[in-house]
Amino acid sequence: MHDWRPSLALFVAFAWPVATAGEEAAASSAGEPAGIEPVFVRPLVPIARGRNDSNPVWSPAGDMVAFERSRGDNKEIAIVRLNGDMVQTIHQKASAAPGQSRFFFPEAVEQTSYNSGISWSPDGKRFVFMSNGGEGNYDLYLREPDGRIARVTTHREKDGHAHWSPARDQIAFISGRSGQGDVYLLDLSTKATTRVTHGEWPYLYPQWSPDGKRLAVIQGINENHDVYVLEPGRIPAVPPKPLSTWRYDDLRPVWSPDGKRFVFMSNGGEGNYDLYLREPDGRIARVTTHREKDGHAHWSPARDQIAFISGRSGQGDVYLLDLSTKATTRVTHGEWPYLYPQWSPDGKRLAVIQGINENHDVYVLEPGRIPAVPPKPLSTWRYDDLRPVWSPDGKRIAFYTNYNPADDPKTWAIVVVAADGSDPTTGEGLAARVVATDVVPDVERGPAWMPDNRRIVYVRNERQAYNPVYIADVDSRTSTLVRTGTKMNHDVTCSTGGMIAFRAQVDQWDQVYLAKLKD
């Protein structure tokens, strides 16, 4: 269940200090510790002053990444291989003739347009994106395998929210050409565009089911959205199936792994948010009915179960919804709220945090055990422990803690403990499980495991060295510098193949880098 590629889009904005010439000279004279010399460290595109990199999207095979590079109000799209080689840069000037746009690559031009919203084809050979083409409105463009760019929609109204079908050469998108914002389907084999909906209110965020036969969308305005299911391939055509048509707000439809069902949140019924399940036959079942809010839903990767947090206990406890029986079971009975349940790779356990204010502890739950067992605490001290992350094999858990000998609440470290709860949970015993100190925490992703289950890559909070990248050996609890040659590093992550991706600051601008270590 850890067959994932790095999701570079989850970057967090920090107030990074800017390196001055004097500081750089001081650091150079001080020297650097010995470290690992990577096979290569490369920016994903050539460094360019005045640009920021953002919103990367990996190809399905993980061999290329397309991302946006901004220059003021303009954005170009760069396509790069994992070895750092540039495949193509997409940008354009003002149109050469009415209705026509010329694209230029691989080098930038003076006046570029705004290009964004990348969606890869399932085979990873093409992708669709939206661009204003120098004409003001947005259309969809297709990047072909040979690098050619084809404009595939040409209406004067905006087209966007493109989502490529996982099963066929079709793209669902939202267009303003209807005057509202309707769902359209683009058949890439014929280039024909078909209007799928005729809504009174705008549709938003079409999401294909895993089999590519249906679309989940929301429709509405302000704080009243409804969920619909579309079947654009049906002959004869069928109208959108409304899953909710009331005055409440229905949000975040998420398909199940098998694509037969999805769950969404709604504040209908009693006014608070509950979970609703769309069954394979189209029926909608309200699966939580309490007057307190239910949320933080997380599908099990192995079973028909959803873990979620509910306020019905008066605090915020973990509950388990068995989709085969629709039974809801309370898993925890906490004095303080639980937050952010995360399933283990095998779907048998949950990692959660519990606490308030600046004191949270990490727990592991085993909701399927018979007889039931209480939560296993992995930490029980007075420090703040956050963002637990399972190792790829599910045997250990890494998390951030602000424990440190100086008792500075703003200084963070990484702790790694056995997921079975056999390690000490407090005092010197838990302190001995610290594998890295002075860490810059990634509050979105948590600690970044390497695929070998024994190393973690992180950024050290070391201003004089401009926040260098380090590798922590979990067993020896030693750290080694990765000699990237970059400064003000942050948002580090790792692929299943061991490729390290991170952002670094170059002349006050953020650039995305890849680093490959020796085998």
Write the layout of secondary structure elements.
Blueprint: H1 21-30, E1 35-36, E2 40-43, E3 52-58, E4 64-71, E5 74-81, E6 86-92, E7 103-104, E8 115-120, E9 127-131, E10 139-143, E11 149-151, E12 159-164, E13 170-175, E14 182-187, E15 192-195, E16 203-208, E17 215-221, E18 224-230, E19 241-242, E20 250-255, E21 262-266, E22 274-278, E23 284-286, E24 294-299, E25 305-310, E26 317-322, E27 327-330, E28 338-343, E29 350-356, E30 359-365, E31 376-377, E32 385-390, E33 396-401, E34 412-418, H2 427-431, E35 434-439, E36 448-449, E37 455-459, E38 469-473, E39 478-482, E40 490-494, E41 500-506, E42 509-516
Parallel strand pairs: 1-39
Antiparallel strand pairs: 2-42, 3-4, 4-5, 5-6, 6-7, 8-9, 9-10, 10-11, 12-13, 13-14, 14-15, 16-17, 17-18, 18-19, 20-21, 21-22, 22-23, 24-25, 25-26, 26-27, 28-29, 29-30, 30-31, 32-33, 33-34, 34-35, 36-37, 37-38, 38-39, 40-41, 41-42
